[in-house]
C-alpha cells in the first residue's frame, strides 16, 4: 500500500513524542493534546500518517487520555500482552510503523463493544474534518459523523 499521507521522520518528533511513540512511555493524563479534543476529524499515526481512529468512536472515559471504542481498521494495529509494572495489560502498537499507541482495556461502553482504546496523544496527529480532504483523507470523511 502506498502512503499518500504526509510522513514524518523520527527526527521531527518532539522529545515527548519520541519517548512515547518510540520508547513506549506514557504522557501525563489530562496534560496532553487530545484528551479533551471535541472537534470532528481523524487521528492518524504521527509517523506514517496512516488513519487509526475517528472522532465518531471517541468518548470521554475520564482517564485523561483520548479513548476510542475501536480503531478504524483492526488490521492497522497489533495488540501485544504487556506485563510491565506488575500489571496485566494489552499494549496497542501500529502494525506498519510499530509505534506505541497505548493500551486497550475491557471497560469501554458496553453498547459499543466494551473496549476502551486508551491512546497517547503524543503518538497521534489530529486532522479536523475541514482539512481531511486537503490532507488526503477524503475517503474517511463519511466515517466522521
Automatic annotation (TrEMBL):
Coiled coil: none annotated. One of its GO terms (cellular component) is cytoplasm. Gene3D superfamilies: Peptide methionine sulfoxide reductase. It comes from the Bacteria. Residues 6-129 form the MsrB domain. The keyword GTP-binding does not apply. GO terms for molecular function: peptide-methionine (R)-S-oxide reductase activity. The active site is at residue 118. Keywords: Oxidoreductase. InterPro entries: Met_Sox_Rdtase_MsrB (IPR028427), Met_Sox_Rdtase_MsrB_dom (IPR002579), Mss4-like_sf (IPR011057). One of its GO terms (biological process) is response to oxidative stress. It is an enzyme of class 1 (oxidoreductase). Its EC number is 1.8.4.12. It catalyses: L-methionyl-[protein] + [thioredoxin]-disulfide + H2O = L-methionyl-(R)-S-oxide-[protein] + [thioredoxin]-dithiol. Belongs to the MsrB Met sulfoxide reductase family. This is Peptide methionine sulfoxide reductase MsrB. It comes from Spiroplasma litorale. The gene is msrB.
Amino acid at each position: 500500500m502506498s502512503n499518500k499521507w504526509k510522513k514524518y521522520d523520527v527526527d521531527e518528533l518532539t522529545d515527548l513524542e519520541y519517548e512515547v511513540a518510540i520508547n513506549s512511555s506514557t504522557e501525563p493524563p489530562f496534560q496532553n493534546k487530545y484528551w479533551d479534543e471535541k472537534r470532528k476529524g481523524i487521528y492518524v499515526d504521527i509517523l506514517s500518517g496512516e488513519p487509526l481512529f475517528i472522532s465518531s468512536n471517541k468518548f470521554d472515559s475520564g482517564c485523561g487520555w483520548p479513548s476510542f471504542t475501536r480503531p478504524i481498521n483492526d488490521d492497522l494495529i497489533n495488540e501485544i500482552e504487556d506485563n510491565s509494572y506488575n500489571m496485566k495489560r494489552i499494549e496497542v502498537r501500529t502494525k506498519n510503523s510499530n509505534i506505541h499507541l497505548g493500551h486497550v482495556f475491557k471497560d469501554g461502553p458496553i453498547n459499543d463493544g466494551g473496549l476502551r482504546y486508551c491512546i497517547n496523544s503524543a503518538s497521534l496527529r489530529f486532522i479536523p474534518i475541514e482539512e481531511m480532504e486537503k490532507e488526503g483523507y477524503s475517503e474517511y470523511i463519511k466515517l466522521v459523523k
